[in-house]
Design brief:
This protein has 388 residues and is α/β, with parallel strands linked by helices. 46% of the residues lie in helices and 12% in strands. The chain has a 9-stranded mixed β-sheet, with helices on both faces. It has a 3-stranded antiparallel β-sheet with strand order 10-12-11. Strand 3, helix 9 and strand 4 form a beta-alpha-beta unit. The longest helix is centred in the first third of the chain and has 18 residues.
Length: 388
Amino acid sequence: MIQEDIPLSQGWTREERALLTLSCTERLGAATARALIEHFGSAAEVLEASPRALAEVPGVGRKLISILMQRDGAKIAEEEMALLRHRREIGDPIDTLFVDHEGYPASLAHCNDAPLVLYVRGKIPIDAPMLAVVGTRQSTHYAADALDRLFTNLAQLCPELVIVSGLAYGVDQLAHSIALEKGLRTIAVVAHGHYTLYPSAHRELAREIMTHGGAVVTEYRYNTRALPQRFVARNRIVAGLSSGTLVVESPKKGGALITASIAFDYGRSLFALPGRLFDKTSEGCNRLIAFQKATLLLSAEQLLEELNLLPDLCSPTPLPFGNQEPESEDDTRHPILAELAKVDVLTLEDLSMRLGMTIPEVSAQLFDLELDGKIRALPGGRYVLRHN
């Protein structure tokens, strides 16, 4: 029983201890763990389930059932709790945030593979909008100049915006540093435990991040080393925390494009900074734009508008001739605008079937309407009305 495996002491609730135990169970991934929790109703009930009951959960095989029955995760969890208590006693507190509990970022919790536990140094501003910024480790002056201008405008238009990145060299380091310079808070997601910091050259940057209202975050236990596969896994946290992801510079392959793909799959807004045709560091960004996976970044205002942050920050732009109606009569007569007014969100294929038009015909009209500022494209090839 869970009461034997996880003693109820030291201020941790039964469910928190169970979540920590599951997160410490080897070969149990976050998505499978959350499927188990959903099936049984709580992490505590998962640990109390019989082998026969566990076998009824899709995707749970004999090997995993055997691992769960061995209860090794409970022992590791106890050791981790003792270590965390020690860190707090010596003045180096590390907070633990549990999925679907108070304090855990809701945007990340909505992802089916969200970590059961986050270990946090500093503070995650959970009520603030977040933007992930990723890119190559071999960044150029173009990336620095673009981020400097973008963050200057973002800080003026949306000072509560939080920049999320991975504390690596290149674009990550630029994103954190320039955000701090412009007065924006920032979060660094790392791929190891808090016993160290990688790269070590960014220790002072990490301290500044925490001092200025941000955090260094990881899903890994305190003594976990940085291994290559963990950098890939942490990308989902960068994307999951954020309403949108901006790829600043990237070759045609790399970690930034992995993060972009995850953000796209999560249904989050994806932006890319365009670059010169023959620049290797812009090849990935240009391809994202060419294949319509990412929106071409034009301005801070455009970015905030797509994230639904701009309308709350400034007055609507007056329409011509003093007309204050959100749509003109001509707009409502356009068949595409009329369909979008009925259903809110439609794909190219949806519009083609509804209007009895070919896909090329609809695509051409969508292009014109988007240039005219009447509609905007969303991730996944979806379209909505643009409300002025």
